[in-house]
Amino acid sequence: MADIGTPGFILILIAALLLFGPKKLPELGHAFGRTIREFKSGMRDMMKDESNANAQTKAPESE
């Protein structure tokens, strides 16, 4: 995967500013941050559920 770098990042910011305007960018940033937090939380819950399911399926060894 190619590295965007500083010039590419600046170009993306300018394009976003032109597309959405200066008043919408903070709202979009908040919505994007909220979406990322929810995604991470969902992934954590899914991983926790999966590890719990794996722990329950292991049969205890009886001697």
Automatic annotation (TrEMBL):
GO terms for biological process: protein transport by the Tat complex. It comes from the Bacteria. Keywords: Cell membrane, Membrane, Protein transport, Translocation, Transmembrane, Transmembrane helix, Transport. Pfam families: TatA_B_E. It is found in: Cell membrane. One of its GO terms (molecular function) is protein transmembrane transporter activity. The keyword Cell membrane applies. Transmembrane segments: none annotated. The keyword Cell inner membrane does not apply. It is a single-pass membrane protein. Its main location: membrane. Belongs to the TatA/E family. PANTHER family: SEC-INDEPENDENT PROTEIN TRANSLOCASE PROTEIN TATA. NCBIfam families: PRK14861.1 (NF011430), tatAE (TIGR01411). Part of the twin-arginine translocation (Tat) system that transports large folded proteins containing a characteristic twin-arginine motif in their signal peptide across membranes. TatA could form the protein-conducting channel of the Tat system. This is Sec-independent protein translocase protein TatA. It comes from Paenibacillus albus. The gene is tatA.
